[in-house]
Amino acid sequence: MMVEIPDSHPRKKSLLSRQKIVEGSLEGLLADSAMIAHGRGEAFDYLLGERTTESARLAVREAASRLSSAISPVISVNGNTVLLAGEGALRLAALLGCPIEVNLYYRTPERVSGLLSLLEEQRAKILEEPVPSGLEGDWRESVTNVPLLGGSADFRIEGLEGPRSHCTEEGIGRADSILVPLEDGDRCEALVNLGKEVIVIDLNPLSRSSRMATVTIVDEVSRAFDGMLAELISNPDCVPSEWDNANAISGSLDDITEFLREKKG
Ligand code: ATP
Ligand code: MG
After folding, report:
1. Residue whose C-alpha is closest to residue 251's, from 38, 60, 16
2. Exposed e or buried b for every residue in 239-260, given b needs 16+ CB within 10 A?
3. Domain range summary for the chain, segments of one domain joined by +
4. H or E segment to which residue 140 belongs
């Protein structure tokens, strides 16, 4: 049951996110561990000051430019991502002209089809909204045409065993650049080993995914999607740089240290 959270509540945004995760769990859209993953993310967001830091902003820009320069980009989403940022993922995919693939670590046909249905609902909602300002071309057609993949897996990620290796050829299988929010470290490593460019969104700068990725955005998933969309609208010709990901992660750790120093006064 959705509980009304007053606008004045200082933690309204965080409570709304929690509510989405709880509802998603009750509807059977999430694996049992999803709440634990969310809690870990929340803890790191607190330590980052619940904002997009300057180093995250640079990573957002790099990710946007790499995705728009890729030949076959894909956005891979899990349950938490669809619940918290499905609309942001759809808007970004529409702008990039790329598919979204539901790809779950604990894969069941019911959860995959439930998340695909939720993405369709989110798509319908976006189609009713005004076109984001600064966008040219037929936005509604681009939104309508975003392929939603994952329903029938016909490909395997080499180097992984069991259901967590299943994916589609049209999406992850043939992608040269993959955006994988909240990915598990093991799968991130397998994708990198296949020679793919892997862009991770993860609030934990110390996770294996963060350390394995080509570009790591240490930011909350919905903020990161909104940031990439804004970046591509304001700077559509952005080009990838020589990106030093270890240095970028170190920047995020400095952001935490700096925030804690401010808090200590
Ligand atoms: P790894 O396998 O990469 O070492 P892990 O096992 O610690 O990571 P997982 O459960 O595999 O963690 O993945 C969840 C990750 O997603 C965590 O690192 C968590 O910080 C991050 N996370 C959770 N919620 C969010 C969110 N809303 N936005 C961004 N990141 C999040
Ligand atoms: Mg893991």
Report:
1. 60
2. ebeebebeebbebbeebbeebe
3. 54-264
4. helix 139-144
- Amino acid sitting at position 191: L
Q: Which is it for the CA torsion 88, 164, 243, 49, positive or negative?
A: positive
CB count in 10 Å sphere of residue 6: 6
Q: Half-sphere exposure of 53 toward its Cβ, with a 13 Å CA cutoff? A: 26
Pocket of ligand 1 (CB under 6 A): 37-38, 40-41, 44, 80, 84, 182, 184-185, 201-204, 207-209, 220-221
Q: Which helix (H) or strand (E) holds 102?
A: strand 100-102
Quote the distance between the C-alpha of residue 146 and its chain's center.
Answer: 16
Please report which ligand is nearest the Cα atom of 225. 1
157 Cα–ligand 2 center, Å: 17
Which residue, judged by its Cα, is nearest atom 31 of ligand 1?
A: 41
How many angstroms is it from 44 CA to the middle of ligand 1? Answer: 10
In this structure, what token pair is assigned to residue 13?
A: 């945004």
CB 107 within 8 A of CB 31: no
* pTM recorded for the entire structure: 0.96
Supply the DSSP string of 213-233, one letter for each residue.
SSEEE-S-HHHHHHHHHHHHH
Tens-place pLDDT, residues 195-237: 999 999 999 999 999 999 999 999 999 999 999 999 999 999 9
List pLDDT tens digits, range 123-170: 999 999 999 888 878 999 999 999 999 999 999 999 999 888 999 999
Strand ranges (E), 134-242: 148-149, 155-156, 166-167, 177-181, 197-201, 215-217
Fold category of 54-264 in CATH: Rossmann fold (3.40.50)
